[in-house]
């Protein structure tokens, strides 16, 4: 006769834990540093802030690359947060998968739009 002192725990979800927490903090820090850099450029610029001033800030190649990096960080930050919300609060698997796919499509569309705006300046 076998004695069962408990069953194996079945963990549902992808159990990302520390990796997601750390990625959220790193992407948030990157976005905060970018915001400080952008505010410094705006505050220390001369004259009125108009389209020409904004285009001048983003015209340098290093600023475009940095902005694109921040856009990618923002999209990943949003993806981790939304995926966690879908996993925590949406129980039917088909609905959760549909919402995750819709989120991915939306984020890719936002990335395409961001690239188009950034490199059109």
Explain what the structure shows.
This protein is an all-alpha fold. It has a single domain (18-120), classed as 3 helical TM bundles of succinate and fumarate reductases. The protein is 74% helix and 0% strand. The longest helix is centred in the middle third of the chain and has 29 residues, at 61-89. The mean pLDDT is 88.
Q: How would you summarize the topology of this molecule?
A:
Elements: H1 18-43, H2 51-57, H3 61-89, H4 93-120
Helix pairs in contact: 1-3, 3-4
Précis, in short:
The chain has 121 residues and is an all-alpha fold.
Q: Quickly count the domains.
A: 1
Helix segment count?
4
- Supply the CATH class: Mainly Alpha
What helical percentage do the residues reach?
over 70%
The CATH superfamily is known as Fumarate reductase/succinate dehydrogenase, transmembrane subunit
CATH-derived topology: 3 helical TM bundles of succinate and fumarate reductases
Largest sheet: none
Structural class, judged by helices and strands?
mainly alpha
Order of helices and strands: HHHH
Which architecture name does CATH use?
Answer: Up-down Bundle
| Number of distinct beta strands | 0
Instruction: Give the distance, in angstroms, between the N- and C-terminal Cα atoms.
Output: 76 Å
Percent range for β-strand residues:
under 5%
Average pLDDT works out at: 88
- Uncertain runs: none
Approximate shape: elongated
Task: Give me the Rg, rounded.
Answer: 21 Å
């Amino acid at each position: 006769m076998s004695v069962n002192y408990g069953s194996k725990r079945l963990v549902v979800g992808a159990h990302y834990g520390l990796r997601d927490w750390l990625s959220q903090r790193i992407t948030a820090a990157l976005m905060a540093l970018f915001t400080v850099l952008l505010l410094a450029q705006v505050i220390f610029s001369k004259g009125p802030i108009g389209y020409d001033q904004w285009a001048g800030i983003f015209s340098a190649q290093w600023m475009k690359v940095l902005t694109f990096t921040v856009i990618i960080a923002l999209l990943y930050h949003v993806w981790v947060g939304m995926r966690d919300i879908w996993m925590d609060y949406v129980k039917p698997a088909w609905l959760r998968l549909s919402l995750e796919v819709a989120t991915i499509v939306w984020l890719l569309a936002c990335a395409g739009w961001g690239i188009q705006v950034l490199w059109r300046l």
